[in-house]
């Protein structure tokens, strides 16, 4: 699945094993990084499996990437367990390639940009130094379930993690064994987290249950829950969209006035307006209907909304907020630059076309044993009725008295001899 992020004067996107950075402010050649050509892990340091053999080699597919707050740094991780750190200004430069213990699912920079935190599929969070780019990672905390999302609070006080078991944990960054709170309320895996920069005490969470929930994360108190199934027009009823309606991305404009939510495999984006008050509230605003399913979205520093979609002709859309509504830009120099780059490199994005849902195997599986039992019982009764009917059809007619007497005597009833 392709991903999109904005940082500084660049739009960066990943698809398959490639990272592409598009300069939207200037007519410059894009930066392209191919993980298949990245540094390989020394054989003597390769991880061993439980049976003593080497772990299965990955496909160099990028699993996650993120910009730092200033946009001057970017980190990515792939399924060959690399953590690659880049400097983006004045030009792109690879600073280091390090190795993680398990394949990672999410990563985030601290606000001070001195650490990169990575969450992996085994439930652990490691910290990697930015100032010492060759230093190995340090284990910070662990969950009992796969981690799916990770964010750091704007004051670098807390690290917030979410896992497959519906838990959101708020831990102290400097001493992660101290847990400040839990945010509990989702009934499926928590797929994404977001702390709006304009509201540093808030946390927005999205889940496989199709809801976006607003928290005061320091106390673990839920302020609001929005059911997206009631807001977004879904696909026909014969599809499984109603059953599996996972939130894939939550983003906020820099001023905090607008929140955009993208659900996986749904060709629309739900926008919310943030109302200021004693506690604040998300108010449903517009629903942007898209011509194609969107892969990802992001806001740029100017507050414009960029949407990456599955279309060769229009791979990326740009929306601006004017006159109390969101307007799709058609003729814009920055949009033109981005579209031209992505069209010429569509073969790279083709790796994400038709890729199955990344949340497909995370949903709970419910077993209805009673329904299966009743079905088998009904089939057994029908079979017995059919067999009983065949037996009665093959026996000669006889009186009840003669039959009972024959059974009692243990003898067969005499057959009348035909007269000669």
UniProtKB/TrEMBL annotation:
Keywords per UniProt: Nucleus, Repeat, tRNA processing, WD repeat
Q: Where are the WD repeats?
A: 183-225
In the UniProt record, which is one GO cellular component term?
cytosol
* InterPro entries per the UniProt record, alphabetical: Trm82, WD40/YVTN_repeat-like_dom_sf, WD40_repeat_dom_sf, WD40_rpt
Compartment(s) where it occurs, according to its Swiss-Prot or TrEMBL record: Nucleus
**Where is the stretch described as Disordered?**
35-56, 377-420
Q: Give the GO biological process terms.
A: tRNA (guanine-N7)-methylation
- Stored Gene3D superfamilies: YVTN repeat-like/Quinoprotein amine dehydrogenase
- Feature: compositional bias, Low complexity: 394-403
Recorded metabolic or biological pathway in which this protein acts: tRNA modification; N(7)-methylguanine-tRNA biosynthesis
Relate the protein's function as given in its record: Required for the formation of N(7)-methylguanine at position 46 (m7G46) in tRNA. In the complex, it is required to stabilize and induce conformational changes of the catalytic subunit.
Q: Which family does it belong to?
A: Belongs to the WD repeat TRM82 family.
PANTHER family linked to this entry: TRNA (GUANINE-N(7)-)-METHYLTRANSFERASE NON-CATALYTIC SUBUNIT WDR4 (PTHR16288:SF0), WD40 REPEAT PROTEIN 4 (PTHR16288)
Question: HAMAP family in the record, alphabetically?
Answer: TRM82 (MF_03056)
What's the name of the protein? WD repeat-containing protein 4
**Lineage in the entry?**
Eukaryota, Metazoa, Chordata, Craniata, Vertebrata
